[in-house]
Write a structure and sequence with these properties.
Immunoglobulin-like, mainly beta, 23 strands, single chain, 7% helix
C-alpha cells in the first residue's frame, strides 16, 4: 500500500511539474473528444443529434451533428464584448485526406456580450463524407483580439441507414438514403410527413452495360400500407429512356425517385420497394424500406 501511495504521489508531482496553467487538456471517454487549449477553455464539450446528447461516435449517413462548447472563457474582453473565430477540418483517418475545411463559422463581427458563452459547430455527415469510413473532425476556436486558442478533436464513424435493405446483383453503389424536400435533409429514422416530397436516392451506381457512353436503365417503385393497399405503383419511371438511354456519368452521379402521400387515413407503416435494372444485362439493385407517416 505504501508503494502504491508513493507511486500516486510521484505521478502527481510529474503531472504538476509539466503543467502550464494557461493550458488545458481534456479527454471525454464516452465520445472520444480530446481538447487542448491555450488561454481559452470551456466547461464542457459534447455532441448532440436532434437536441439529444450523443455518448458514442457512430453516426448514420445524413445525420447532422452539433459540436457544442459550453461556457467558453478566456477570450479577450473589449468593452464587454469577446470576438471568437471558429473553423473546422475533417480528415479521412484511413487516407489522411482532408475532405472538408471551412472558413470562419462565426459571422458576427460586432462580437458577443453573452455570458456564459456557448459556441457550436454543425456538421452534416454526408458528401464529401461517405458511409463505411472513419473520420476525425477538428474544431478550433481562436481569439480575434488575442492569442488564445482551443482545439477539440472528435473521431467518428459513418454507417448507412440500416432500415434500408439493399439487394444488389452485379452492381455497386456508394450511398443510398432517404431525403426530405421539406426539411432539406436526409431522413435517418424513416419517419416522414404527409404531403412532403420524399426522395429515395442512389449515388455512385455502377455496373450497367455501356454503349458509347450510354446506359439503359429501368426504374420501378411500389408502396403499400400495412393492410396491403397499393399507395404508389409505377412499373417504369425510365420508360422514355428505353431506346435513347442516359449518360453513364449521369446515372453514376445520382438516381432517384420521389413521391408524396396526401394527408388521409393511413395504415402504418408504408412499405416501399424501388428497383433499378439494366435493360441490356442482368444487373439490378432493389431497395426495400418501411416508413412511418406522421
Amino acid at each position: 500500500m505504501k508503494n502504491l501511495s508513493a507511486f500516486i504521489t510521484l505521478l502527481t508531482l510529474i503531472l504538476l511539474s509539466g503543467c502550464n496553467f494557461n493550458r488545458s487538456v481534456k479527454y471525454d471517454f464516452l465520445s472520444g473528444i480530446t481538447s487542448s487549449g491555450k488561454n481559452i477553455d470551456c466547461e464542457d464539450i459534447f455532441v448532440t443529434v436532434n437536441g439529444t446528447k450523443k455518448s458514442g461516435n457512430t453516426f448514420i449517413y445524413g445525420e447532422i451533428l452539433k459540436i457544442e462548447f459550453i461556457n467558453v472563457t478566456g477570450l479577450k474582453n473589449i468593452e464587454g464584448d469577446v470576438f471568437p473565430e471558429m473553423t473546422m477540418t475533417v480528415i479521412n483517418t484511413s487516407s489522411g485526406d482532408t475532405v472538408l475545411k471551412t472558413d470562419d463559422l462565426i459571422s458576427k463581427p460586432e462580437g458577443y456580450s453573452l455570458s456564459p458563452l456557448t459556441l457550436y459547430a454543425n456538421l452534416t455527415v454526408a458528401s464529401p463524407i461517405n458511409s463505411k469510413k472513419e473520420y476525425k473532425a477538428a474544431v478550433k476556436i481562436s481569439d480575434k483580439k488575442g492569442d488564445g486558442a482551443l482545439v477539440a478533436e472528435f473521431p467518428f464513424k459513418v454507417v448507412p441507414n440500416n432500415k434500408i435493405i439493399i439487394e444488389a446483383n452485379d452492381v455497386t453503389s456508394d450511398e443510398i438514403y432517404l431525403y426530405s424536400e421539406e426539411s432539406d435533409k436526409a431522413i435517418t429514422d424513416n419517419r416522414i410527413s404527409f404531403d412532403d416530397n420524399i426522395h429515395i436516392i442512389i449515388e455512385g451506381l455502377k455496373g450497367f452495360k455501356e454503349s458509347d457512353g450510354m446506359v439503359f436503365p429501368g426504374l420501378s417503385i411500389m408502396a403499400t400500407d400495412s393492410k396491403g393497399n397499393k399507395i404508389i405503383e409505377n412499373d417504369d419511371l425510365f420508360a422514355k429512356y428505353a431506346e435513347s438511354g442516359v449518360e453513364s456519368a449521369a446515372l453514376a452521379k445520382r438516381v432517384s425517385a420521389h413521391f408524396n402521400i396526401p394527408e388521409t387515413e393511413f395504415n402504418n407503416p408504408l412499405h416501399c420497394e424501388m428497383t433499378v435494372w439494366d435493360r441490356n444485362s442482368g444487373a439490378r439493385l432493389k431497395i426495400t424500406t418501411d416508413m412511418i407517416l406522421e
